[in-house]
Amino acid sequence: MTTTPTTPAPQSTQKLTVADYLALGDAFEGRREFVDGEILEMPPESNLNAQISVFLLVTLAQLVPVPWLRHKDVELVVAGRVRMPDLVVLGEDLAAVLLASERSTITEAMPAPLLVVEVVSPGKANEDRDYRYKRSEYAVRGIPEYWIVDPMRQTVAVLRLVDGLYESVDYTSDQRLESALLPELNLTVAEILRAGKPT
Known about the structure:
The protein is α+β, with helices and mostly antiparallel strands. Helix content is 26%, strand content 25%.
């Protein structure tokens, strides 16, 4: 009797849910995001991007209480994904909620942050993530202000939430950013892109 070899049935690869991902806790080291059921490791930033985000952190620390600030260390659950923004201004209510939480994760049941800042890394995938996907996600989450700092284009886009959608103003060169959240902010695009270095 001859038998015909059979091909094993493909294994079903069930994607993780946000709850599954959050339940993993500290199983993974390093920065990562959770998108469409998959854990995405985030490579180290370029020196310039790291300097820009630290410069903005130091600048914002002069304008808002330090406990309101998070720098590359808080997860933001939004639209079935988990993002890890470069810089976040929490606000008083969210800062209090996070202080009482065991994990530095902003869930959808918590208040929205007041401001999220992303510094764009080179490459189309990175541009799409910050300009398209995160723009939609942060708007859905109700984040009042979102800044996109783009060293390649030499611009800073300040997006303000109006009736559920972001309206964007692009700033370049020596233009001073205008922020509804931080009206006393006195900072130009050139200063941000120099990241505190003298001219």
